[in-house]
Amino acid sequence: MQGFWKKRLLAAGVLATVLVPVTGAVATLPGSSVLGSAIRAEAAVMTVHAVRTVDLRKTAGFANNVERKEGTGTSFTVLPGSTATWWHVLDSSGNIGYVIRKPYWVQISNTSTGAQLSAPTVVPPATQAAISLPPGVKMDPTLQPAAPLKDSTAAKAQAVLQVAASKLGTPYIWGHNEDRGQYGFDCSNFTAYVYHHALGYVMSGASTVQASSVGWQVPMADMQPGDLLIFNNGQHVGIYAGNDRMIEEGGGLGKVGYLSVAPNSYWGSHITAVKRMF
Questions:
Q1: Domain ranges of the chain
Q2: How far apart are CA 174 and CA 89, in angstroms?
Q3: Cα 278 to chain center, whole Å?
């Protein structure tokens, strides 16, 4: 079928075959869930895939609009209408919606001209997820971290919490970071030190930079051990340790210690962002 893309969609109980000219014509999908709408073909077909379970949403945004859960490895065809934050996609079952455009959740698989949309090339997601670096981070080639890039998410979380716990009781001293040969830490130099020795990351030791430019922001409801926690838009930072606790430097303790981040606690009510770091 030279010069056309062919796609079979299962929607509203009707199996429809759509032939879309590569010239950019508009094809309408009669008998499908997108009746009356149109999908414009582009010269290149882009596919993306989920590297972990992701929400397919009816609209672009975090409103209460989840249509379904898409599992790890699910492949999507990218449609017109994507934004800087959201991919507009079609899954293999014919469901159309939006998935978050963050490499922690969804990564590009391939771009090909005239490809069969029903058979995209998929990069193994487990490998891609394990080696992804969060924004605002680079690797220190001179350091052997506790958990290398290839390690599992669980191993990385354990390494972060073990390195953090190894500094329990270390006093708060503003501007200090033991990576610079100083004794003690402030809150953000502590988090930078922990991610450096646990994961090999080199990142800013400024709390405002960690708040604005480091890590993948995730919903608070998805908080996981090892996440970087931002308080009051960068006035304080810590690391989530699980069970409604964080480990941090200062925060009223004057040293490295654990504090509650339960919803009814002081610090829990001041969380303004949760950053995924691996």
A1: 4-124, 138-276
A2: 47
A3: 8
Contact 134, 202 (CB under 8 A): no
Residue 37, pLDDT score: 34
Identify the CA nearest to 162 among candidates 151, 173, 172.
151
Comparing CA positions, the residue from 107, 201, 190 lying closest to residue 148 is 201
The class (CATH top level) of 4-124 is mainly beta
Quick: pLDDT tens for 143-155.
999 999 889 899 9
CATH of segment(s) 138-276? 3.90.1720.10
Burial bucket for residue 260 (CB in 10 Å: 0-12, 13-18, 19+)? middle
- Residue spans of the chain under pLDDT 70: 1-45, 110-131
The tokens of 119 are what?
């058979």
Angle, alpha carbons 57-8-71 (nearest 5°):
40
Question: Per residue in 208-228, is it b (16+ CB within 10 Å) or e — as a string?
Answer: eebbeebbbbbeeeebebbbb
CA separation for the pair 226, 241 (Å, rounded) = 6
Single-letter amino acid, residue 108 = I
Task: Please compute Rg for the chain using Cα positions.
Answer: 22
Distance CA 112, CA 7 (A): 15
CA–CA gap between residue 84 and residue 240 (Å, rounded): 28
> Hunting for tokens 């130099």 — which residue is that?
189
Cα–Cα distance, 105 to 76 (Å, whole number): 13
Task: Quote the CA–CA distance of 210 and 212 in Å, as a whole number.
Answer: 6
CB atoms within 10 A of CB 276: 20
C-alpha–C-alpha distance, residues 17 and 89, integer Å: 18
Q: Would you give the DSSP letter of residue 270?
A: G
pTM of the model: 0.58
